[in-house]
Amino acid sequence: MTKIKVCGIKTREAYERLQELGADYIGFVFAKSKRQVTPEQAADLGEKKADGPARVGVFVNETVEGLLHTAEVAGLHVLQLHGDESPEFCRKLRQRTNLQIWKAWGVHNDERDAVLAAYTDVVDAVLLDNERGGTGEKFPWDAIPALRAYTQDLPLFIAGGLHPDNVGDLLAAHSTDGVDVSSGVETQGVKDLAKITAFVTKVREQR
Ligand SMILES: O=C(O)c1ccccc1N[C@@H]1O[C@H](COP(=O)(O)O)[C@@H](O)[C@H]1O
């Protein structure tokens, strides 16, 4: 079953729709972004219900102390590291928390991607994206099989430029453990409930 994460949630309406739809993960952006929320705002948007979506925090080059503080205040289950965090940084973070750690990797499509192999024993999942997060831009999907070889058995999420009209093509062409979307379910920079519903429905049809 392909897991579904919808990221950049800033309103209760979007949060509640994702709960109703049974999404697997709800993402909050704590990095500098038009989607940035404070830990307190993320906490106020909703709570994790027993079988409801897990709460993912998206960070870019945050300190260990900053990550742990935000996770505590916002009630996070997953720390998504979307910057230049090294394998060594992930190892240190892992020694301080039982929360899941996901490493987002900006696909280079060259020999630099081999560095991904160094994360396999220090994170819980890898998320492939274009070189910067939250831009709505795809990376070349034909790179996925080679990247999967580096990440071995780790769960692999695909992000970057997904939307309701292309996620079916991705899932038809490539096996992935999860998909992650932000820009592609927005209209004029605001989460669009109809697009969120269409995205989740499309993924469910394929899996
Ligand atoms: O969404 C953001 O603003 C953001 C900012 C900084 C780092 C990551 C960010 N979002 C992540 O980017 C990917 C893909 O987003 P999109 O669908 O292409 O817009 C996703 O993993 C978000 O969590």
Automatic annotation (TrEMBL):
It catalyses: N-(5-phospho-beta-D-ribosyl)anthranilate = 1-(2-carboxyphenylamino)-1-deoxy-D-ribulose 5-phosphate. Keywords: Amino-acid biosynthesis, Aromatic amino acid biosynthesis, Isomerase, Tryptophan biosynthesis. It is an enzyme of class 5 (isomerase). It comes from Tumebacillus amylolyticus. Residues 5-201 form the N-(5'phosphoribosyl) anthranilate isomerase (PRAI) domain. Signal peptide: none annotated. Belongs to the TrpF family. Its EC number is 5.3.1.24. InterPro entries: Aldolase_TIM (IPR013785), PRAI_dom (IPR001240), RibuloseP-bd_barrel (IPR011060), TrpF_fam (IPR044643). The gene is trpF. The lineage of its organism: Bacteria, Bacillati, Bacillota, Bacilli, Bacillales. Pathway: Amino-acid biosynthesis; L-tryptophan biosynthesis; L-tryptophan from chorismate: step 3/5. Coiled coil: none annotated. One of its GO terms (molecular function) is isomerase activity. Pfam families: PRAI. This is N-(5'-phosphoribosyl)anthranilate isomerase. Gene3D superfamilies: Aldolase class I.
